[in-house]
Recover the amino acids of this structure.
């Protein structure tokens, strides 16, 4: 039986609203890229494509934009280098692919997809993740090509501060429901600016920043990764649907409240197996949007 409730939800990070981000020009620019990501991914669903293909396509668009902290335009670590993390999960099989700490891959979400498709393992890190992707057809890039002048300027400003604290930044992600009723989730990030080399956040951790299960829901999170890992946020949300039999909205509120109790900040997007959509956050803002029944809605 073909499922007619096609759904695609995306996010471009949650955090505090700056003056630059709140300008009409900035909002319009972000809106345009979010719309392109939704249009591209949803077109796949409308052609009876898979939820896995849809989330990959949507996240790839966001990774290629300098506006978001994933792929090109990611934040720099303490050494002034880019280290990328990503994950993808198939709700039909519970198979997943994940990479962390890569610098020579332009689209980490596609590398994570290769692991899902061609490896018995779930997660690879650093040069080993890069080499796996390269063996399966991905080209190496110059790590410097991922650095934008805007992020280099931000990094220098942070380094000049007395305490040089690591600032929290968002990530990008997508969740989808396809015509076969299969759910999928994908998340990609550059982490937090001025992070220590080797630091890994929640995005590539299955059950923390990324999770999908056809029996419950698909989730992609964004925010302060350490808190999402400590609460196993995405799985916690899904587990509530399975064990407590509550609504997606209720489960999301509880999971976000638990995160906040520890001092965590961020947000999430989710779709349950019935096609219900939830987007929630406890920061000042979150870039997000969804596509369903030929309707595209973007919220900033």
């Amino acid at each position: 039986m073909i499922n007619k409730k096609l759904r695609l939800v995306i996010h471009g990070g949650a955090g505090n609203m700056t003056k630059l981000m709140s300008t009409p020009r900035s909002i319009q620019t972000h809106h345009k890229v979010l719309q392109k990501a939704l249009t591209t991914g949803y077109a796949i669903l409308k052609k009876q494509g898979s939820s896995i293909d849809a989330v990959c396509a949507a996240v790839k668009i966001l990774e290629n934009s300098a506006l978001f902290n994933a792929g090109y335009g990611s934040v720099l670590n303490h050494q002034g280098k880019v280290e990328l993390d990503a994950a993808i999960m198939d709700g039909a099989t519970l198979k997943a692919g994940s990479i962390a700490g890569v610098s020579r891959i332009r689209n980490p979400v596609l590398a994570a997809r290769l692991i899902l498709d061609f490896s018995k393992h779930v997660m690879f890190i650093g040069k080993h993740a890069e080499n796996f992707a390269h063996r399966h057809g991905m080209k190496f890039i110059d790590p410097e090509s991922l650095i934008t002048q805007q992020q280099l300027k931000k990094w220098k400003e942070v380094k000049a501060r007395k305490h040089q604290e690591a600032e929290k930044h968002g990530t990008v992600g997508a969740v989808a429901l396809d015509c076969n009723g299969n759910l999928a989730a994908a998340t990609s990030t550059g982490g937090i600016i001025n992070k220590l080399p080797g630091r890994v956040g929640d995005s590539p951790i299955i059950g923390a920043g990324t999770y999908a299960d056809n029996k419950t829901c698909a989730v992609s999170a964004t925010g302060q990764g350490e808190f999402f890992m400590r609460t196993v946020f995405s799985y916690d949300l899904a587990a509530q649907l399975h064990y407590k039999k509550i609504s997606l909205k209720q489960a999301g509120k509880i999971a976000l409240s638990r995160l906040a109790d520890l001092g965590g900040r961020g947000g999430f997007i989710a779709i349950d197996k019935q096609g219900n959509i939830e987007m929630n956050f406890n920061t000042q803002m979150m870039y997000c949007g969804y596509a369903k029944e030929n309707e595209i809605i973007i919220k900033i």
About this structure: The helical segments are 24-46, 51-63, 108-118, 126-135, 149-160, 225-230, 233-244, 248-261. Residues 137 and 191 are 26 Å apart (CA to CA).
